[in-house]
Amino acid sequence: MTETPEPQRQWLVTLSMPIEAGDRAQAAAGFWEYVKNLGADELPVFVSPMTDEMAMLAYVGGVESDQDPEEE
Known about the structure:
Layout (H helix, E strand, L loop, with lengths): L10 E4 L9 H15 L5 E6 L7 E4 L2 E2 L8
Antiparallel strand pairs: 1-2, 2-3, 3-4
């Protein structure tokens, strides 16, 4: 018996962080510098089904990660 693959869904994947900068271009450059330096092993991304943003979960390096500051 073969497994039926799960149907493809659309996901909303976001990475958002505050960046101090003098203007938008500097903020964009600072963002990409953080992404380059920290990479997937340290930066959390937030993933939710496109139709249910309230079901968002955090992932770091492809593994679910609790990002609740109240839990620390």
